[in-house]
Write a structure and sequence with these properties.
Number of helices: 15
Helix content: 40-55%
Strand content: 5-15%
Radius of gyration: 23 Å
Structural class: alpha+beta
Distance between the termini: 52 Å
Shape: globular
Length: 424
């Protein structure tokens, strides 16, 4: 596992220097206020021209890390302009990433809002977060960048590689985390590997959002793409869900977040069934990383250990309940029976009759398509070299965006004068 960026000190830049950098690189003047962070150094810049967030990249990070983040935000906003993401402010030369004194920089607009309540999260906010995670999942689909495939400790698919960090964990907690880690590797990871991959924001939680002060259940800002990775969308769902389990019944919180995600980006029951195991995995991941950070960066202890007790409590709550019961509750919240006894082949024959034929002795049963891949209901990926696939591939974001925009505006037929039909 590569911990280089975590072992490299945060940029040694204070507010006064941040103000000078903002003027020198972006021509933006204002008063700088420091923001909390793990690896980078960020400042809110308030001036006559508005408010911005200046991120100063960690020198131990990949040189293309900020470029990948800026491109991901632009890709998502191009697909869904209504997403509450900040827009990247380019340098006067038009570059999305600036530089100063060996540091790489990113300037984004600041979205003004309120921090969500720390306790007793209302169900409406959980659903709002689940919906946002689903919308973001769709919007990021089709984007890729080499930086997403790095060996990164916050990538949940790499969780077993964090096992050596158990040495940093207090002795009284070590056996619980070790057993949860072994369960994740044996039961969750193989099923996760059968699912398709896409960009995952991987850090959608209360510290990275703001809500409408007049409607605290509505998210109006989502920030920080620094933990992006490549993996199944179920990871996005699980990370978002984990933080909403703090201090409450995990099954109830999961049902609320997952059902909202499912409305925005329909899930397969096999993905939903992984959520409890993935949430437990996220708790283990966070506790291991916090323990390491406390040992190596005691000067940033308050930030590193901020969620540790909540993660520990959530993990124990989850381990204390029957996992199948939690899965059943989540499935039922999404409108699925548990388990489903339906034979899809028999149901097809009953309802469609014998006229419509099927190809292959073992029929292909796709649940969704991504690019050149058909993904079956059990998560198996099939390279599509035969199906009547559009030449640009399944679920191409530009095609989906065009179809969505048209459906949102007008859906009719040639009985009327429709300009798009003639143009086509």
């Amino acid at each position: 596992m590569d911990f280089t960026v975590f072992d490299t000190p945060q940029p040694a830049v204070g507010p006064a220097q941040a103000e000078q950098i903002a003027v020198a690189v972006y021509g933006v003047g204002g008063v700088a206020s420091p923001l909390a962070g793990e690896r980078d150094r960020s400042f809110r810049i308030d001036g006559d021209r508005g408010s911005y967030v200046l991120k100063i990249g960690n020198r131990g990070d990949r040189p293309d890390a900020l470029e990948a983040q800026a491109a991901a935000m632009a890709h998502a906003l191009a697909f869904d302009p209504s997403l509450p993401l900040p827009r990247v402010i380019p340098t006067p030369d038009g570059d999305p990433v600036g530089s100063h004194d060996g540091y790489l920089l990113q300037l984004t607009e600041h979205i003004d809002g309120a921090a969500p309540v720390e306790r007793d999260t209302p169900p409406g906010l959980r659903r709002s977060l689940g919906s946002l995670a689903g919308r973001l999942s769709i919007a990021l689909r089709g984007y890729d960048h080499a930086a997403l495939h790095r060996l990164f400790p916050w990538d949940l698919t790499k969780l077993p590689q964090l096992a050596p960090l158990l040495d940093h964990v207090p002795t009284e907690r070590r056996s619980v985390l070790a057993e949860a880690l072994a369960t994740f590797e044996a039961r969750v990871l193989p099923a996760l590997g059968r699912l398709g991959g896409q960009p995952v924001h991987g850090d959608l939680h209360d510290d990275n959002i703001v809500v409408d002060p007049d409607d605290p259940e509505r998210v109006i800002g989502l920030f920080d793409f620094g933990d992006m990775s490549w993996g199944p969308r179920a990871i996005e769902l699980a990370v978002t869900t984990t933080y909403q389990c703090f201090g409450t019944d995990p099954a109830q919180a999961m049902a609320q977040v997952v059902s909202a995600f499912h409305v925005a980006d329909p899930l397969h029951p096999a993905e939903m069934a992984l959520v409890p195991g993935l949430v437990a995995g996220r708790c283990v991941q966070s506790l291991l990383m916090a323990a390491r950070h406390l040992a190596t960066h005691p000067d940033n202890a308050e930030y590193a250990a901020g969620d540790a007790e909540n993660m520990w409590d959530t993990l124990n709550r989850l381990l204390a309940v029957d996992q199948e019961t939690v899965v059943e509750r989540v499935l039922r919240a999404c409108g699925f029976g548990f388990p489903s006894p339906t034979d899809p082949l028999a149901l097809r024959r009953e309802r469609l009759g014998p006229t419509l034929s099927l190809s292959y002795d073992n029929p292909v049963h796709p649940e969704r398509g991504v690019g050149v891949w058909l993904i079956e209901h059990d998560g198996r990926r099939l390279l599509d070299a035969y199906n009547n696939v559009p030449q640009v591939g399944h679920a191409h974001p530009e095609v989906v965006s065009a179809l969505t925009a048209q459906a949102r505006r007008l859906s009719t037929n040639t009985r009327y004068l429709v300009d798009e039909v003639v143009a086509y």
